[in-house]
Amino acid sequence: xxxRRTVMRMEDTALSVALPRxxxxxxxxxxxxxxxxxxxxxxxxxxxxxxxxxxxxxxxxYQRSRLWFWSQLYFEALGRLMTLHKxxxxxx
Length: 92
Prior knowledge:
This protein is mainly alpha-helical. It folds into two domains: 1-52, no CATH class; 55-92. The chain has four helices and no strands.
């Protein structure tokens, strides 16, 4: 009987053996002439990446605003906890 653990171990063994030979198998299939995506090799991937528009400044601005929001939320919560703690100490 196969348990989930046994099946996971079998899959892990199969993938560990297959992964080192993956490039070899793909090259042996000789499918490159039939492929049209611009990302079939590292060189093609780099050329394709150079054609994409850069939107990093917008993302950086977004990440900074998120960081500011979460830091403000954190400090507000911390302030409330400190006030709560002080009030509890005063009660004792």
